[in-house]
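Example record used in the benchmark description.
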Amino acid sequence: MCSATPTAADSCCSWHREIEVLGHEYTHQWQYALGCNSVFDRKMPRWWLEGMAQYVSWRSVIDGGLVPETDVVTLLTNWTKYARIRAPPQQLEADFPNDASPNSVVYLATAQLVKLSSASAFTTFCARVAAGAAWQTAFEPSFGLSLSDFYQRFETYRDGL
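Model output (structure tokens):
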């Protein structure tokens, strides 16, 4: 049963879960429409595709006032901290081991990337990839830091959780 004051832990609640799923899947459609990903030609790293979708889906329930941001961050931080294995972001480019709590990791990584750059940088990044740039090449001019710097900063952030 859902509580009167929902928290992120109430993810079974249909009124909030449905919004999350819609936000997540809509983001994938947006990624495809921008041309930065194709079902037939996966140009982008899995952590970016899923991280962006997770970020947008959780932001939709947070910004809609359904769940406080602190609850979401606490929940996803705990899932990340207590995952059975710790997968570095580089591993999540292609592999998504369930024991690593990948959806929470990629949400936190994406949230950090937004804080380090901006949400609009994702559109810029996607446009560069759609124009033919390799995602690794498009990363730094889009987000303002190298991919290796981002991975290092995220691991430092994750160490502090």
